[in-house]
Amino acid sequence: MSKGDSGERRIDRIRDSAGMFTIGDKNDGAVKSLAAIGGRLFAIKEKAIYNVSFADDIDPERTRDDIPNTVQKVFDVGSDDEIVIRLLLTGIELFKKDRLVESIDYEVALSSVMDILKDLAAAYVILIEVEAFLTKTGGNQIRPKDGAVSLPSFPALHAQTKSFIQKLDHAMQNIFNMSCVFYEEKTLRKSGKWLDGLAIHLSKTLKPDEDFSRFAGELAAFGKMVRNIRHCIEHPKTTQRIDLHDYRITASRSLEEPTITVTHDETPIDPTPIGQFMRFFYEQALAGAELLMVYLSGEHVASFGKFPIGVGEIPENQRRDGVRYGYLIQLGGSIHRLG
Fold this sequence. Notes:
By secondary structure, the protein is an alpha+beta fold. It is 45% helix and 19% strand. Strand 8 (248-249) and strand 9 form a beta hairpin.
């Protein structure tokens, strides 16, 4: 590498100099914030999220002066989307170094939030595609032609349903992994299987009427239902299966939306329109992940001098970027968000 009169290498001048570059395009909206998670820098735009890598990230030894900075879209959802607000932005608000006790690795906790977002965002994309297809197709009128009615069909019904359930199950696994950042995994697994371990552990260590303990039991029950449905898809048998039915005409001559039925000894589900089924499971998983972050951080709050602080719902006039939960402190008889 060539050196100037000062002895500084050309590559050092390039890498150390100020500069600017474009992240995405105008369709993504504005960059609302930057977040460093898991050793990576993310630019959170209104309608997308990008991973930003600087030349030094790619070539830390500075061996080539033609290595560029790079940007790459990692999510088609951004700060305007409910899923990003309730997962990523809420995680950034709650999992902070100075707010959690020292024993909690807040960076690993944030990485687990990104893992949950990855799977739930993928499930969300499937949900939106299915709902759009059902809305478009459901408007078709039933008209006989040549003695028969041509019914609409959903050729991707099985593939979309299978993919949706798998993404949801992966999200629930990552929700469990997030719990293991706050409680030792071996402790939870010793208490019970998977999310049951968290629920049983909390029932033994918290007061019986604690909201967190009750919530953990409900989350475990939901997680078990998701996993059972995945087993029905991947390991079907007579007493463990799903039945998917495409569009059908009823005796009242109305068009019935595709449905799913789950046959399982523990968690059966009666015939349900596929759109309702996906919407319910997606929203339950999203709410479960959001509230788990609230309870986990609330149980592991670091001391703040003589002032008691807690985690709860932020007053609406103090919220930022739509985030509903955060750290609160009582001053002068009023509740204030602790920034």
